[in-house]
Amino acid sequence: MISPVLLLLSIFGLTFTEPDTSVSLDKDTLQWQDLTPPEDLKGWKVCCGPARYEVRDGVVTGTTVPGSPNTFLITEKKYGDFELEYEFKVDSRLNAGVQIRSEVINKRIRGCQIEIDMDENRQRFWSAGIYEEGDRGWLCDLSRNPEAIAAHNIDEWNHVRVVTRGAMIETYLNGVAAAKTWCGQRLKGVIGLQVHGVGADQTEPLKVQWRKLKIRDHGEHQWITILDAAQTPPQSTGGDSPMSLWKFTPEPTTESLKLTLDLNENQSWSFRQGDLSYNFTAAGNSFSFQFPPLTRKQDSGPMGGLGSSLDRLWSQSRIFLHRNSWGVGYEILTPGGSGNSRKVARFGLPRPGSGEEWAITASPGAQWRVQALIQKTARNSPQKP
Question: Which is the CATH superfamily of the domain at 33-217?
Fold first, then answer.
């Protein structure tokens, strides 16, 4: 049975006549900004733990404290779309990282982390992999990227480049492409330097260092609602059916869509495009998928298997659908933040015609909305004369 999300991808018009959605870097107008913390840490703050931070001669040094949890030195400013570059060097017994687009909730940081993984005990070497701290864990590790693993310089300085655009995140380690994924739930947040927690028996201080931190700010993206059941009357009631009906045509160039459903028990929601259909039925705080068969050619990525059905709390859950020049992907998130995330390679999906109409049906009173991700103007672009 084919994954429901694959059907979602085709129905949402996420076909493979792909625009070039690599990050448009306006290098002639956007200037690099030094992001190195000053020695007095002005504009930054330490949170979540007692590890020590010191800045000398442009080098930030984080030092462990026995028995401490993860500690972060975070910016006061929040960033959305950007290019970020830095160098790091770390004790081979220590794990660390750089948070991006993160937030602090109940004294715990949540958001994507660009990993620093030189731990000689694990022998894993996943630096520049993408890990979601305080949330889903690994979104894209380096288990299938031997070139990036080989690019590590043990006990030496390593260069990392991070690019974010909309829901897309990609990284490079010492010039080698490392990780690529999507994360639609946090599009803007703080940047932070992590010193990983250690046990009480680790009395010898371990250090991680960063230098040459710089950022080029490309503004941010935002979600806009394109269809909301609470605000958009249905076109019809679907004849004799008790279901309400909406019809509309999405923009063909949309890269990311967010679907939020809030179904009460025994309510249902579905949409159809051409011969394809997709259905939700809520029962006992769970939901089920029903769809016609579809051939799956290939899937890839470390983010869990493609399932045909899921049983989890459904109220205010979200589905994110993404595409760009290096593939398609989805995320399914429950209100608590847990959920499934997947980077998907090219599949043998039908290609709905450009501008093909959607038909959405839903139980009376069912709450749902569809949102598209659009770009705001970069804030720090110089004013044209």
Answer: Exo-inulinase; domain 1 (2.60.120.560)
Q: Do domains 4-19+222-375 and 33-217 have the same CATH topology?
A: yes
Q: How far apart are CA 167 and CA 183, in angstroms?
A: 5
Instruction: Please tell me the predicted confidence (pLDDT) of residue 357.
Output: 75
Q: How far apart are CA 375 and CA 370, in angstroms?
A: 17
What does the block give as tokens for 212? 């040459």
Tokens matching residue 18: 């792909």
Taking the domains of the chain in order of start, what are their residue ranges? Answer: 4-19+222-375, 33-217
In terms of Cβ atoms closer than 10 Å to its own Cβ (0-12, 13-18, 19+), residue 57 is: exposed
- pLDDT of 1 > 50? The answer is no
300: helix, strand or coil = coil
CA distance 89 to 210: 7
In CATH, the architecture of 4-19+222-375 is Sandwich (2.60)
350 contact partners, CB below 8 Å, separation of at least 6: 10, 274, 275, 276, 294
Instruction: Please answer whether residues 47 and 104 qualify as being in contact, where contact means their C-beta atoms are separated by less than 8 angstroms.
Output: yes
Could you say which DSSP state residue 184 is in? -
Pairwise pLDDT comparison (11 vs 219), residue with the higher score: 219
- What tens digit of pLDDT does each residue of 270-316 get? 777 665 555 667 665 454 444 343 333 333 333 333 333 344 445 56
Q: What are phi and psi of 43, to 5 degrees?
A: 90, 0
Helix (H, G, I), strand (E, B) or coil at 9: helix
**248 or 59: which carries more pLDDT confidence?**
59
If one compares 368 and 37, the residue with the highest pLDDT of the two is: 37
158 pLDDT exceeds 80?
A: yes
